[in-house]
Input
Amino acid sequence: MASYFNVTLDTAAPSDVALAINGGALYASSTAVNLNITLADEQTEGYQMKIWGVAGALEEAQANWENFVPSKGVNLPGGDGLKTVSIKVRDDVGNESLTVSDSITLNTTVPVVTVTGPDRSKISMVEGFQKAVINFTADVPFEAYKVCVVSTVSAQQEAGIPIPTEGGSLHTSGEEGGYPASTNIEVTITGADLACASPGDGVKIIKVFVRNASGIWSVV
Output
């Protein structure tokens, strides 16, 4: 019979724990996000984690220990604005890591576009009659816009055909980013470019779409 036994002493907490929300994105367009958790420990069997700053656990005291996984879907608290999610990891003998956090801005607001014009409701390709001018603004800051021909007034941006600029149209799209709310943009549309986007005479429905920082396009 053996008169001895072995006990392993382990006082080292999980190291280099890191957290990224949606891969480190700056903005989220939905409360549903994915957390990626990494750490230096190669063996994670028996490890647990605690997550807070999410729906149902706003504070650490409201969070419960659960089995560690490197990727987990969670829901952010409702309401647009900056959200911070925090996590701790503990190993199989209770050593806890330091708290690590990551932040993301929740922006679920659908931009609303207001168009003024056009100055002409009927154009051709004849000099002096070939241009129509509109102005538009959006009620929120936006990062990109495009002016498209659509089949119905309710069409969304993916169904639109962008109006090109080869025929003299101006400012029919933009991706410079950082457009403040209420920025006025003047757009010129020529008959040649309108015909390129939508061949054939007749009434054309033209719609302006803008995209906010979280990737949401206007729809109304």
In short: The first helix runs from residue 191 to 197. The longest strand covers residues 81-90. The chain has two domains: 18-106, 113-211.
